[in-house]
Write a structure and sequence with these properties.
Layout: E1 4-10, H1 14-24, E2 30-33, E3 49-53, H2 54-62, E4 74-76, E5 78-83, E6 90-93, E7 103-107, H3 108-119, E8 126-128, E9 132-140, E10 143-150, E11 153-164, H4 171-176, E12 180-196, E13 203-209, E14 212-218, E15 224-231, H5 235-240, H6 243-254, E16 261-264, E17 268-277, E18 281-282, E19 285-287, E20 293-294, H7 302-319, H8 326-355, H9 361-381, E21 387-392, H10 396-407, E22 412-415, E23 432-435, H11 437-445, H12 449-456, E24 458-460, E25 462-467, E26 474-477, E27 487-491, H13 492-506, E28 509-511, E29 516-522, E30 525-530, E31 535-543, H14 550-554, E32 559-575, E33 582-588, E34 591-599, E35 602-610, H15 611-619, H16 622-632, E36 640-642, E37 647-656, E38 660-661, E39 664-666, E40 672-673, H17 681-696, H18 710-738, H19 743-757, H20 760-771
Parallel strand pairs: 1-2, 1-11, 2-8, 5-13, 11-19, 21-22, 21-31, 22-28, 25-33, 31-39
Antiparallel strand pairs: 3-7, 4-7, 5-6, 9-10, 10-11, 12-15, 12-16, 12-17, 13-14, 14-15, 17-20, 18-19, 23-27, 24-27, 25-26, 29-30, 30-31, 32-35, 32-36, 32-37, 33-34, 34-35, 37-40, 38-39
């Protein structure tokens, strides 16, 4: 029987492998068809040099590929461009743009090894190697037939979506009958590693001639990567040069800007052609990377463009159930059209202009270089805020805020001091949230929720609350509200992992690891200085960096604190009886005890205890802890036994006195920390995000107020501060009432719970408040 996949990727090169990694994070069933056998990298991973743009670095960091490089990338901090025989030049310095670098140079072979290392970590990926693509068959029951062969013979694989990432001479493209527009630049490009008298200092040198460009790119191993274009009819002679003659030719082409060139590694040669597919999709098939467009390497846009293809497709596959649906393919074509058109026009047009020997063009090129240099200086002098919003803090609330604001068309950057650890299904995070219905809808709109639900989100259908002092139970039941569930129990680590995975495709500019050191602001915007020397300008800054927020402090936003002198003890426990998909909460004199279902017989506990009692309970051996926990829960689920380590965190109320200071606003834990008894902490933070997205969306524009105006931000602040304060003091009042052992209160509160439970409209009102609907 033929093997079936959601997605079958043909081609394990740069783009195909990157897509496989991105889709594995989404939980998709993916097959990867590779021509190279195990232990051997594809031919594309040779000694050529790849220049990665900042967005590409961010995306590959989120995919955890950059961390696998064995050699540090070479940062391009300065760019020097000139043309032989013309006057004028362009010099750009990243520091003038408050950036640490314009891009980074990575050796293709090192990058291939990093991709291979990540591919080996993917538990769901099915790799077919070595395997040859032969052709396409019919579509049957929503699956495309793909004919392949290896040493054992021919076979057929089935896929909802076939991805052609098999390079310039794409077999998938040919099988679909898609024609191409081809342009031959009549040039051959030589690449090699060279060593110079002067070590690279972060400058990329590029010089144009009539026969093509020559460049020296700073690598991370104290060598340069060289790119040397020659006329096609000269290629054979250049390849035949010995190393001395080869270095002399390079020296003449690039000049002495990097000092004397001393030695060279092996040379490789590639014909320069442009191949553009006339269509990007066929029935249940899509083309990516060089299979869709092979462009001139001038501007180093080839892989950057291909990776954007892959990330766009991955983003669409997050929310589309049928991987190869017509709707998905139409969306892909629409999303990629403008980026593809502009990038192809830029690289091809620049190549034609700079290599054209026509005498009349020489003064125009020279004046163009001078004008470009002056324009770059003028743009630095007149530069205004490049970003709309910079968000400090990449936790659940901060990352969701970045996605939400990018979703309404704002230019967003995210600053985080430490990259989150990869979520691992075998190591559940002790920190879990009772996710409310409105926040599920928010993450649905952002395209993230399906990847969370596929991984591990346990629905709870009921919530049962009772008082240890007696009285009737208060029961919330999804059936009574006409819903499938009341909410979901989700791990913090999983939420953060999936939110971060979505950042690159959303266009969020990521600064990690980095911390804010200083803040300046005026009526036009903010300027942040980071600890790595970078500076970021934006119209607004969002403090989402937690209860001890640095940005909140720099903005002068004060907080009021109240210590409950309690700690929340957390762990996973297994129960003798099924938990019935119910979130349980028992009020005890020492504080509430909650059990949140994460599997049929496993729950996450949050046990609120006074500080000294929490310390005592944490010190108990497992058997003693199990006995005390079972007794505290009145054995409602039979015996409870630890299934994980224990931990505890201090409980307090902390509320910002105001949410906005100038052009800085605080949300999430930076604005409010509340008692966890109702599991509302992260829900309140995400409601901050949803409200901010609403007020900054184009559709919310009122009476001519600009999208990022202080008036709109203040409206958001008034709305959210009022709601959050009501919630914080309500939770505190409930905790005090039910943690009090005074006789008259004990008698009253048990009856009160029973009365609420017997009045359906009141039960529904309580639940709607908690669920945000």
């Amino acid at each position: 029987m033929s093997e079936r996949h959601d997605v079958l990727i043909v081609g394990g090169g740069l783009v195909g492998a990157s897509l496989a990694i991105a889709l594995d994070r989404l939980g998709r069933d993916v097959g990867l068809l590779e021509a190279s056998p195990a232990g051997e990298l594809p031919a594309v991973f040779d000694q050529r040099n790849l220049s990665f743009a900042a967005a590409t670095i961010n995306a590959l960091t989120a995919l955890r590929v950059m961390q696998k490089l064995s050699m540090a990338p070479g940062p391009i901090r300065r760019i020097h461009v000139s043309r032989a025989g013309d006057f004028g030049r362009v010099q750009l310095d990243a520091a003038d743009y408050d950036r640490p670098w314009f891009g980074q140079v990575v050796v293709a072979r090192d990058f291939g090894q990093a991709l291979e290392s990540r591919l080996q970590e993917l538990p769901r990926l099915r790799r077919y190697r070595p395997m040859r693509f032969l052709g396409m068959g019919d579509v049957i029951d929503g699956y495309r037939q793909v004919r392949v062969a290896d040493d054992s013979g021919e076979r057929v694989l089935l896929a909802r979506l076939v991805v052609g990432a098999d390079g310039t001479s794409s077999g998938v493209r040919d099988a679909l009958g898609i024609e191409v527009d081809r342009h031959d630049f009549q040039q051959t490009l030589f690449v090699a590693r060279v060593r110079s008298q002067r070590a690279p200092d972060g400058t990329a040198w590029e010089r144009f001639t009539d026969t093509g460009p020559t460049a020296l790119l700073p690598r991370g191993d104290r060598h340069f990567g060289t790119v040397h274009g020659v006329a096609r009819d000269q290629a054979e002679a250049v390849m035949a040069l010995d190393d001395t003659a080869w270095l002399q030719r390079l020296q003449q082409a690039i000049g002495w800007r990097a000092g004397r060139l001393l030695d060279s590694g092996p040379r490789s040669a590639y014909p320069l052609i442009q191949v553009l597919a006339r269509a990007l999709v066929g029935e249940r098939t899509v083309l990516l990377g060089n299979a869709a467009q092979t462009i001139h390497p001038l501007g180093a846009q080839g892989f950057n463009l291909g990776l954007r293809d892959a990330l766009t497709l991955a983003e669409l596959l997050e929310v589309e159930g049928d991987a190869g649906s017509d709707a998905l393919l139409r969306s892909y074509v629409a999303r990629r059209e403008e980026d593809r058109r502009q990038t192809v026009a830029f690289s091809g047009g620049l190549a034609r202009l700079t290599s054209n020997p026509a005498p009349l063009l020489r003064p125009l090129r020279s004046l163009g270089l001078v004008a470009a240099q002056r324009a770059s200086v003028q743009s630095r002098m007149n530069r205004r805020a490049r970003l709309d919003v910079v968000i400090v803090g990449g936790g659940v609330v901060g990352a969701a805020c970045a996605l939400a604001l990018a979703d309404v068309g704002l230019a967003v950057a995210l600053v985080e001091g430490r990259e989150p650890a990869p979520w691992q299904a075998a190591q559940p995070d002790l920190r879990v949230f009772a996710f409310a219905a409105d926040n599920v809808q928010l993450l649905q709109r952002l395209g993230v929720w399906p990847t969370i639900a596929q991984a591990r989100a346990w629905p709870y259908r009921r919530m049962q609350v009772w008082d240890a002092a007696g009285g009737d139970d208060l029961l919330f039941d999804a059936d009574r509200f006409g819903r499938r569930e009341l909410g979901f129990i989700v791990e913090n680590g999983l939420l953060q992992d999936r939110l971060w995975a979505a950042l690159p495709a959303a266009g969020v500019e990521l600064h990690c690891p980095a911390r804010v050191e200083a803040l300046e602001q005026d009526e036009h915007g903010v300027r942040l200085r980071l600890d790595d020397g970078r500076r970021i300008e934006a119209a607004l800054a969002v403090a989402a960096d937690g209860a001890e927020s640095t940005l909140r402090g720099l903005a002068g936003i004060d907080v009021e604190r109240h210590d409950y002198l309690q700690r929340g003890v957390v762990a996973y426990v297994d129960s003798e009886l099924p938990n019935q998909a119910t979130a349980w909460q028992r009020f005890l004199p020492t504080g509430p005890l909650a059990l949140l279902p994460v599997a049929e017989r496993r729950s996450s506990i949050v046990w609120t205890l006074p500080d000294d009692e929490a310390a005592r309970v944490l010190a108990l051996d497992e058997d003693a802890f199990n006995r005390e926990l079972t007794r505290a829960f009145a054995a409602r689920l039979g015996e409870l036994r630890l299934a994980s380590p224990r931990a505890a965190f201090p409980l307090r109320r902390q509320l910002a006195r105001h949410y906005v200071a100038g052009r800085v606003l605080a949300l999430g834990d930076a604005a409010h920390v509340v008692h966890p008894l109702a599991g509302q902490g992260v829900n309140l933070g995400l409601r901050d995000v949803a409200a901010l997205q609403h007020w900054l969306a184009p559709s919310a524009e009122r009476r001519g107020q600009p999208r990022l105006s202080p008036q709109r931000v203040q409206r958001w602040a008034r709305e959210r501060r009022s709601d959050n304060q009501i919630a914080a003091y309500s939770f505190e009042a409930i905790n005090r009432l039910f943690s009090n052992d005074e006789m008259h209160l004990t008698l009253a509160r048990g009856r009160a719970l029973g009365c609420v439970g017997k009045w359906p409209p009141l039960v529904q009102a309580f639940w709607k408040r908690a669920a945000g609907v």
